[in-house]
């Protein structure tokens, strides 16, 4: 798992697990596997809530029960943030979304975030900031994660980043600036079965090693007379995550990192992003008559677009939605590419997310281009 910490260029205890001191927050990270990014988000929110109990309220929620005072503040969040709040009993309505993060100019989004956090804090709440890294429709990142980390510090908020695929921007010097400030989070969600391309049932959870003994162990430990995993100075996985029995999920992670390494993942990430940019530029510059891209830019590996409207431009939402859905169904039936439906800024849209390790511009762009031209030209 140290290889995972290294893959994302996060600081890691050079002496390894055993000498880790929990007294001083060195900023070192550790990683573990989960069943997916949903599970990592649930773990992150649970750890965050317990941390807030101990560090903001002076109580242990996992011992004494929860007082309902935590609010989750988020931006452009993935649906699983509400799911995690629901499962954990924080409540879906206690998730506050700051609109438009990453989309405004200047320092507006941080100002809006700070105002919201201050308001909640003044109302006696404890704050769990849950930041999306790489918005699911567009790949957009927060503009200034360092500033957001400062706000968290100022208001004693817990800081989690959901970087399920956005975190992979750290694999390439070309894109790493997008994910700058990642290392300031308390904990991070990453996905194994997305851009790492390992089989399903692999999420990653990265966390400050100082959380392990005082927060994660009390929260997750399950002691039974017949289970005696300890005897080593580091925590047993059973006592710092959801499952007791777990399969050896880190094996494929280890194998692929041994085989490809950081250099291999740099190439995969860059090639996938290059494919997305090729697709984006083609739609925007060559065939705006067929396809309309819905963002100003293509920062990472995702393109969000729609079928170009007819000249009258007066179609209703339902008509547009139907046309896009029909086009998407035809595209996916070809078997050449697989895109998904979405809504972006209130408009029905189609989303292309490129993350397969085998996809290259050289081999795949031409067939995709021909297919997209053919399918959009039918009616
Ligand atoms: C995919 C995704 C998730 C959920 O991941 P699963 O592995 O399907 O559970 C959560 N957050 C983000 C940002 C994602 O992209």
Descriptive overview:
It is a single chain. This protein has a 7-stranded mixed sheet, sandwiched between helices. Strands 8-9-11-10 form a 4-stranded antiparallel sheet. The protein is globular, with a radius of gyration of 22 Å. The longest helix is centred in the last third of the chain and has 37 residues, at 250-286. The chain has helices spanning 2-7, 37-57, 61-64, 80-87, 108-122, 145-154, 212-220, 250-286, 317-334, 361-377, and strands at residues 29-34, 70-75, 95-98, 126-132, 158-162, 187-191, 203-208, 291-293, 302-307, 340-344, 347-353. By secondary structure, it is of the alpha/beta class. The protein folds into 2 domains: 2-247, Aspartate Aminotransferase, domain 2 (3-Layer(aba) Sandwich); 262-377, Aspartate Aminotransferase, domain 1, CATH 3.90.1150. Strand 10 and strand 11 form a beta hairpin. Helix 9 packs across helix 10. The termini are far apart. It has 10 helices and 11 strands. Bound molecules: pyridoxal-5'-phosphate. The site of pyridoxal-5'-phosphate (PLP) has 12 residues, from helix 2. The site of pyridoxal-5'-phosphate has 12 residues, from helix 2. Its cofactor is pyridoxal 5'-phosphate.
Main beta-sheet annotation: 7 strands, mixed
CATH architecture descriptor name of the largest domain: 3-Layer(aba) Sandwich
Radius of gyration: 22 Å
N-end to C-end Cα span = 51 Å
**Percent of residues in helical segments?**
25-40%
Number of helical stretches of at least 4 residues: 10
CATH H-level superfamily of the largest domain: Type I PLP-dependent aspartate aminotransferase-like (Major domain)
- The geometry reads as globular
Read across the widest sheet, the strand sequence of neighbours is 1-7-6-5-4-2-3
Given as residue ranges, the uncertain stretches (5+ residues, pLDDT < 50) are none
- CATH top level label of the largest domain: Alpha Beta
In terms of structural class, how would the helical and strand content be classed? alpha/beta
Secondary-structure element order, N to C: HEHHEHEHEHEEEHHEEHEEH
Number of strands: 11
Average per-residue pLDDT, rounded, comes to: 92
The third-level CATH topology of the largest domain is Aspartate Aminotransferase, domain 2
Bound molecules: pyridoxal-5'-phosphate
The domain count comes to: 2
User: DSSP strand (E) fraction?
Assistant: 15-25%
GO molecular function, one term: carboxy-lyase activity
Cofactor: pyridoxal 5'-phosphate
GO biological process, one term: carboxylic acid metabolic process
Modified residues (N6-(pyridoxal phosphate)lysine): 194
């Amino acid at each position: 798992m140290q290889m995972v910490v290294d893959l994302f260029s996060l600081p890691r205890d050079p002496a390894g697990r055993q000498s880790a001191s929990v007294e001083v927050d060195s900023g070192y990270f550790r990683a573990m596997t989960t069943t997916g990014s949903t599970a990592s988000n649930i773990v992150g929110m649970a750890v965050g809530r317990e941390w807030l109990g101990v560090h903001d309220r002076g109580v242990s929620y996992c011992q004494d029960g929860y007082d309902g005072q935590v609010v989750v503040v988020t931006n452009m969040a993935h649906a699983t943030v509400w799911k995690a709040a629901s499962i954990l009993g924080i409540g879906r309505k206690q998730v506050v979304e700051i609109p438009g993060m990453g989309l405004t100019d200047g320092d507006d989004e941080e100002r809006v975030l700070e105002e919201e956090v201050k308001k909640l804090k003044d109302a006696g709440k404890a704050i769990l900031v849950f930041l999306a890294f790489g918005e699911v429709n567009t790949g957009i990142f927060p503009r200034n994660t360092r500033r957001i980390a400062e706000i968290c510090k100022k208001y004693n908020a817990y800081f989690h980043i959901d970087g399920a695929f956005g975190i992979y921007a750290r694999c390439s010097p070309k894109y790493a600036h997008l994910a700058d400030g990642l290392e300031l989070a308390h904990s991070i969600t990453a996905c194994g079965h997305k851009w790492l391309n390992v089989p399903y049932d692999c999420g990653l959870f990265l966390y400050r090693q100082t959380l392990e003994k005082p927060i994660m162990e009390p929260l997750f430990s399950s002691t039974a007379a017949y289970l005696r995993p300890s005897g080593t100075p580091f925590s047993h996985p059973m006592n710092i995550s959801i499952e007791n029995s777990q399969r050896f999920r880190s094996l494929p992670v280890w194998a692929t990192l041994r085989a490809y390494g950081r250099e291999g993942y740099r190439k995969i990430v860059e090639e996938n992003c290059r494919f997305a940019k090729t697709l984006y530029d083609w739609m925007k510059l060559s065939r705006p008559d067929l396809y309309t891209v819905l963002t100003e830019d293509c920062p990472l590996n995702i393109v969000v677009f729609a079928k170009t409207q007819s000249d009258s431009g007066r179609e209703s939402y339902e008509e547009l939605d139907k046309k896009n859905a029909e086009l998407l169904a035809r595209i996916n039936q070809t078997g050449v590419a697989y895109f998904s439906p979405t809504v972006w800024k209130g408009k029905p849209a189609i989303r292309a997310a490129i993350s397969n390790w085998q996809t290259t511009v050289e081999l795949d762009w031409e067939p995709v281009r021909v297919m997209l031209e053919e399918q959009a030209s039918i009616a």
